[in-house]
Amino acid sequence: MSTAGPGRRERKKQQTRAALSAAALRLAAERGVDHVSVEDIAEAADVSVRTFFNYFSRKEEAVLGRDPEHAERVRERLRTAPPDLPPLATLRYAFAGLVEQLESERESFGRLATVLAGSPRLLGELVAIGAEDERRLADLLAELRGISYPHALLVVSATGIALRIAVEEWGLLPPDSPHPPLRELADRALDRLAAGLDSVDQPGAAPPDTDPTPKAAE
User: Fold this and answer.
1) What is the 3-state secondary structure (H, E, C) of 45-67?
2) Is there a contact between 29 and 7 (Cβ–Cβ < 8 Å)?
3) d(CA 92, CA 213)
4) Which residues, 6 or more positions from 24, have their beta carbon under 8 angstroms from its beta carbon?
5) What per-residue confidence (pLDDT) applies to 139?
């Protein structure tokens, strides 16, 4: 299998998409989603409106900045996970790269939190997108590990909630003071999930390391 990175044309497309999404999110955080137009976003990213529609069908998609390739990379890691891993450990392996990526995008997550707090409609759209991603991931997990779809969906959903809580905790920490990296908070949340919540719900108690896979920092 080739491990070559994207070519120049593909890198340019990725950069344009990222610039549009960053401009959309910045303007939405400053003005509110309802007061930002596609024309505003294209101008801020220094591209034409036509170019905008090559990447997004509407401004809300640009603000959320969801790149379908991110979900596909998680699914690809799921496919390449060691076959002897149990379902939860398999997902932990699959999400490791995503945790690293999120950690490099702290400022964007702060802006997105601001935008979502002021737009229940956009928050609902993000939840719906996440639910669809979970269903597709659960389908693949069930197939790969030979488990039922309901069980796979339970594992996927629980993992997603654990990671979301870690991201929320990380986002509330002052960025200019010492604090645990996101990967550490994610590992902590997933350790608790793997051990069983009731067995580690003690104030100040560190969860046991029950996961057989490399940590999210891998």
Assistant:
1) CCCCHHHHHHHCCCHHHHHHCCC
2) no
3) 7
4) 36, 41, 59, 62, 63, 65
5) 96
List, for residues 42-97, the tens digit of each pLDDT value.
Answer: 999 999 999 999 999 999 999 998 777 778 889 999 999 999 999 999 999 999 88
Q: pLDDT digits over 156-212, tens only? A: 999 999 988 888 788 777 767 777 888 898 999 999 988 885 554 444 445 445 455
Q: What angle do CA 184, 187, 190 make, to 5 degrees?
A: 150
pTM, entire model: 0.74
Amino acid at 58: R
Q: What are the φ/ψ torsions at residue 4 (nearest 5 degrees)?
A: -65, 145
Task: Give φ, ψ of 6 to 5 degrees.
Answer: -65, 150
d(CA 167, CA 182) in angstroms, rounded, equals 7
SS (H, E, C) 125-194: HHHHHHHHHHHHHHHHHHHHHCCCHHHHHHHHHHHHHHHHHHHHHHHHCCCCCCCCCHHHHHHHHHHHHH
Q: Is 213 exposed, middle or buried (0-12, 13-18, 19+ CB in 10 A)?
A: buried
- What's the residue count for the chain? 218
Return the structure tokens found at 1: 């299998």
Burial 173-182 (b: 16+ CB within 10 A, else e): eeeeeeeeeb
User: How are the residues of the chain apportioned to helix, strand and coil, as percentages rounded to the nearest 5?
Assistant: 70, 0, 30
